[in-house]
Amino acid sequence: KQEVTQIPAALSVPEGENLVLNCSFTDSAIYNLQWFRQDPGKGLTSLLLIQSSQREQTSGRLNASLDKSSGRSTLYIAASQPGDSATYLCAANQAGTALIFGKGTTLSVSS
Amino acid sequence: DTEVTQTPKHLVMGMTNKKSLKCEQHMGHRAMYWYKQKAKKPPELMFVYSYEKLSINESVPSRFSPECPNSSLLNLHLHALQPEDSALYLCASSQVIGTAYEQYFGPGTRLTVT
Questions:
Q1: Rounded to whole angstroms, how far apart are CA atoms A65 and B19?
Q2: pLDDT digits (tens, 9 = 90+) for B20-59
Q3: HSE-up of A58 (CA within 13 Å, CB side)?
Q4: Which residues 81-110 of chain B have a CB within 8 Å of chain A?
Q5: Considering only residues 18 to 47 of chain B, which have any Cβ-Cβ distance to chain A shorter than 8 Å?
Q6: Could you give the 3-state DSSP secondary structure of residue B85?
Q7: I need a surface site. Which of A52, A96, A104, B23 has the fewest CB within 10 A?
């Protein structure tokens, strides 16, 4: 059974820092991996989708990488801002089921 | 239009009430999903509909009853819920199930059971 793990569970950084969020998965037979952002009490905002054949995707200050063979994905946030404060979830899309989510990393960026 | 809409945004119901959550998409997607998210936990899959037929039921209690009346609409009927069912209920859709297509999520319905 697929398990998705995110490290660290929480992260506090000063504004302007570059940071990396980690996601690992136990079964490499995935179609793709999605990164989401969730603000407190709100729904999910999709940030990046990486297909299994891709190595990375970029959107603005965000860059996500995928290494299927090692079962790892990272989300890199450049020049962090207080508005980036939220919980970041990664989710593996696997055949026979829907998305399987990690528990998330809660990011706090101080000004 | 990549929007999934959900109504209501908030719902408070007693344990003897019957209510329904509604989800709608007009992207032509043929797979629709219900997820449940408890506070400070990740979303967990409840049901998946594929071409208006129930494809996956993740052993959800019968007090939750899904319905897919057409390809654009997904309902979740609620009856005799317990306080522990209070959560954020998220709807999602994708082109088809079990493929590399992206899932699009609605904003969710915040349910409180008193």
A1: 42
A2: 999 999 999 999 999 999 998 999 999 999 999 999 898 9
A3: 3
A4: 88, 90, 92, 97-100, 102-108, 110
A5: 33, 35, 41-45
A6: helix
A7: A96
Q: Quote the mean pLDDT of chain A.
A: 94
Looking at residue B78, its amino acid is L
Residues of chain B contacting residue A33, judged by C-beta atoms under 8 Å apart: none
Q: Are A19 and A76 in contact (CB under 8 A)?
A: yes
Q: Let me know: does B78 contact B20? Beta carbons within 8 Å.
A: yes
* pLDDT digits 0-9 by tens, A69-99: 999 999 999 999 999 999 999 999 987 678 9
Q: Which residue of A has its CA nearest to B106?
A: A43
Give yes or no for residue B1 having a pLDDT over 70.
no
| C-alpha triplet A51, A24, A64: angle, nearest 5° | 45
